[in-house]
């Protein structure tokens, strides 16, 4: 059954105006209706509800208890309908502000956003690299893309992926020690971002007892894009995600000397306030990025060795 046949929307609009103004004449003036038409709509609604909504007293209209109970919800319902219409009208010229962790911004989003903008040419995108956690109550972001274990209960959270990682270095650096043939050989070279927990995770995965990396402080970067650039420059070995450096591996600018890689509980998440989940520009980007990352993972994630 159509909504208009179940709920008398016109009568509810008239009811909201009468209850708010506490008078038929001011409601009629606001709605551009005659008082007779207003009275008719109220009578229809009272028949539908089965209760009297207004007490008609000399020189005033008094809301009944039933009307007082209905009014807040009816008012909010029309506010939501108005918000939906505003969102629909603004979708064609709104700017989508995205706050993203630095590496995902520079090594994935910046390279792939063109596809989104071809699909949604009317949505302008403002992309900011941020290292701090976005506070949606203070920051102007529509969407944040962050690393973490997640999900976060106060936000709408969508896991984009948990990406594989492995040590990577330039071929020229590997040649300085006659090549890298065992995981222990990596310890002969400068370790980039040695304080990152992913190093110990990887060494444990390949069966190497937790090495002491405390002496590797020269390139103690946190952000993966900085680690990757240092590795490309031959400054050391970095532990990197395949999805971000697949082109460098394919071209030979970087090598991953072992077919041994791992993942952990940390993933990349798209998050936004729960109240904005149906905002058209957010919904469009969310659906696009979930599919696009999944497709790229199919292409870039390493395949397990054949038995």
Task: Please give a structural write-up.
The protein is α/β, with parallel strands linked by helices and about 300 residues long. It folds into three domains: about 5-90, Winged helix-like DNA-binding domain superfamily/Winged helix DNA-binding domain (Arc Repressor Mutant, subunit A, Orthogonal Bundle), CATH 1.10.10; about 95-160 and about 265-300, Periplasmic binding protein-like II (D-Maltodextrin-Binding Protein, domain 2); about 165-250, 3-Layer(aba) Sandwich (D-Maltodextrin-Binding Protein, domain 2), CATH 3.40.190.10. Helix content is about 45%, strand content about 15%. The protein is built from eleven helices and nine strands. Strands 4-3-5-9-6 form a five-stranded mixed β-sheet, covered by helices on one side. Helix 2 (about 10-20) crosses helix 3 and helix 3 packs across helix 4 (about 35-50). The two termini are about 60 Å apart.
The total beta strand count reads: 9
What does the radius of gyration come to? 30 Å
Please state the second-level CATH architecture of the largest domain.
3-Layer(aba) Sandwich
In terms of structural class, how would the helical and strand content be classed?
alpha/beta
Q: Can you tell me the CATH superfamily of the largest domain? A: Periplasmic binding protein-like II
* Number of domain units: 3
């Amino acid at each position: 059954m159509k909504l208009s046949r179940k709920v008398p929307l016109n009568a509810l609009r008239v009811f909201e105006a009468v209850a708010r103004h506490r008078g038929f004449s001011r409601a009629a003036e606001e709605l551009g209706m005659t008082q007779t038409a207003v009275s008719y709509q109220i009578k229809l609604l009272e028949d539908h509800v089965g209760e009297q909504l207004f007490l008609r007293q000399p020189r005033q209209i008094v809301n009944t208890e039933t009307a007082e109970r209905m009014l807040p919800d009816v008012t909010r319902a029309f506010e939501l309908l108005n918000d939906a219409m505003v969102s629909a009208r603004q979708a064609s010229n709104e700017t989508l502000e995205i706050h993203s962790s630095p590496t995902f911004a520079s090594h994935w989003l910046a390279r792939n956003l063109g596809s989104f903008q071809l699909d949604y040419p009317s949505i302008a995108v403002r992309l900011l690299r941020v290292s701090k956690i976005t506070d949606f109550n203070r920051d102007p972001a529509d969407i944040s893309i962050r690393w973490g274990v997640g999900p976060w209960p106060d936000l709408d959270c969508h896991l984009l992926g948990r990406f594989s990682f492995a040590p990577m270095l330039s071929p020229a650096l590997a040649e300085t020690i006659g090549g890298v043939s065992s995981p222990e050989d990596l310890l002969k070279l400068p370790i980039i971002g040695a304080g990152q927990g992913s190093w110990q995770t990887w060494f444990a995965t390949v069966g190497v007892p937790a090495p002491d990396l405390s002496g590797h402080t020269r390139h103690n970067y946190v952000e993966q894009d900085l680690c990757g650039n240092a590795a490309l420059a031959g400054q050391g070995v970095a532990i990197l995600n395949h999805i971000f450096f697949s082109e460098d591996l394919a071209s030979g600018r970087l090598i991953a000397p072992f077919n041994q890689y791992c993942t952990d509980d940390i993933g990349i998440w798209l998050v936004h306030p729960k109240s904005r989940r149906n905002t058209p520009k957010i919904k469009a980007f969310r659906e696009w990025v979930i599919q696009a990352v999944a497709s790229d993972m199919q292409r870039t994630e390493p395949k397990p060795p054949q038995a």
